[in-house]
Amino acid sequence: MTARLTMDRRALLAGAGALAAALTLDRAGAAAQDVVRRPGAFPPGFLWGAATAGHQVEGNNTASDLWLLEHTTPTVFAEPSGDADNSFALWATDLDLARALGLNTYRFSLEWARIEPEPGAFSRAMLDHYKAVVDGCRPRGLTPVVTFNHFTAPRWFAARGGFTNREAPDLFARFCDRAARHLAGNVGYALTFNEPNILRLLRGLLPPQLLDAQRAMLAAAARAAGTPKFVAANAATPEDVEAMLPIMVAAHKAGRAAIKAARGDLPVGVSLAMTDDEAAGPNSLRDAKRAEVYGAWLEAARGDDFLGVQNYERVRWDANGRLPAPAGAVRNWSGAEVYAPSLAGAVRYAHQATGVPILVTEHGVGTDDDAIRAALIPAALAELRKAMDDGVPVKGYVHWSLLDNYEWVFGFRPKFGLCSVDRTTFARTPKPSAAVLGAIARRNAV
User: Fold this and answer.
1) CA atoms within 13 A on the CB side of 19
2) What are the residue ranges in the chain where pLDDT is below 70?
3) Strand pairing of 314-317 and 419-421?
């Protein structure tokens, strides 16, 4: 996300390209609706969606903590977010695209840094912007799923220690209150946080040299901000991870209460990063790892209306730790295993541990080979349908992501999108996997 926001020839080209694709997909969708429903039908009203996140698609999020980290020397970010996908300007094009794919749900996030760029200074223009996105979903037949915090926060918040600051729950609740009272009227589902457990999930997986580089980056950001500590939700030193846990849980509860106070009937939850953890052999570490990574959050989620599950892979644990992927496994861009049943496995555990309904808020694969994505989607959904047949209440499936976008420290290299994005014109082009998910959504069956 960066620099200048331009609604110029590039934006017009992007809009024209996506709308042309939309017309093509609408014609294909009409044919798909004629397909006889198969036995693997999902319940009426099931949510079929795709997700984006503000900083990763909007561009030019200059008041945010991540913008500073991307431009700090040294930095662990492969490249700055820059214009990203220019979705701040092209949000209507993205909604049209989601509709044209045959989806009925769109997940996106609010950028706290845009709405409250300085402490207590709320931008009516930015609140109106996000309200327009929410309200724009409804006439397109899209249920808006809104994440109030998808990792990024205002720079001033990170400069106060982020979620290591004991004032953070009150500051976050103030933001949630202001935003919810302005735009929550048409929201379908609300999430306080996106993957607040991500740093715990990654603990032990990141090499020491990366942790050292991250520490140096955070120290440089603190100097630039004139503060002793600079902490982001997805960039913190290992010692801060423990301090963040109780404060973020308290912030979730305070944020949930603020959103509910604004609109009591709005379902509110939190999304968790969850691998499908399997025990291998005697004395497996699986249960201990589950308690470490998910425990406090699963307990907190028992008081929520639903839990968002975000799954990308499985992990097999023996008595010594994490096992390597099986020989011959399909791999994603980073070499991790692509395993279709992992989504259902994570969903089953999430419901068993909390007792609340599940909404799949992210699932997908980072790969340059869209055939892997096109094969994964129906295979994973067939397993999800089996879990639902066994009694697990699942409200919907939201794929990550609608667009190829900015993937944090990795820059634009990983490709998770159902649609590719031209980095010069911002034109969106649906991939074959988009038609696969769209056809499933239209007939509401795998």
Assistant:
1) 10
2) 1-39
3) unpaired
